[in-house]
Specification:
By secondary structure, this protein is an alpha+beta fold. It folds into two domains: 4-104, Orthogonal Bundle (434 Repressor (Amino-terminal Domain)), CATH 1.10.260; 116-236, Umud Fragment, subunit A. It has helices at residues 4-10, 15-21, 26-34, 41-51, 55-58, 75-81, 85-104; strands spanning 116-125, 137-141, 152-157, 170-174, 184-189, 192-200, 206-209, 220-222, 230-236.
Length: 252
Amino acid sequence: MNNLKALRESLDLKQSEFAAIFGIPQTTYSNYETGVREPKTQFWIDVADRYGVTVDYLLGMTDDPHGTAHGGKTALEASYDALDAHGKRLVDLVIDAELERMAAAPAPSVDEPRPMILHYIIPAAAGWVNPVEGEDFEMIPLPDDAPTDADFCITVSGNSMEPRLHAGDLAYVKRGAPLGDYDVGVFNVSGDVLIKRWHIDRRGVLHLTGTNPAEAGANRIIPVSSQDSVVCFGKVINAKKPPQGDGPTAAW
């Protein structure tokens, strides 16, 4: 059993918080702690470097966060010592060749770190019922054509928002952005999460509608007397109107 959990708890971090630091989903990280899934080598190295512990400790080979399980040697050093003379010569040749290659290669350019954005992994509703809150998320690089002021993004499921948003598109959401008439937002209606246009008519009736007339059955009409609770997660800021428009009567 590895010592990931012990390290995380010593830092007083939740699984979701620890996973977010390293840009992986909480569910993936949970599998690392329980041994259901084996992390890649780079993950162990990143954790060890960040928190000043040894990889041997993280792997559960020693209980000393700063010690090793091989008489003061790292696992790599111990493996090298275990080789016979022929094996050591081969390793030395590879190391020498790689050092020469690196010395002859031009210095790599240093790129600016790519901005990241929170992405909810479970597809968000465009007429379907799916959660958008919780811990099932990941950090992904922000695409070049994405809005830079979005707070999070979700994957669209269904086609009720065509041609503004298609199934599989990423909807970029800005929390707290004001919604104008027929703007597109992400709404929680009594537990159902929907990507819809927003409109309140003169009677105070709330219309949450799509832009695809063929999917009008996915619209939600909520009268004043309704017991439904409605929460807006934010405005979808990449849902542009098509050139021909999609006026109030297009979806109902």
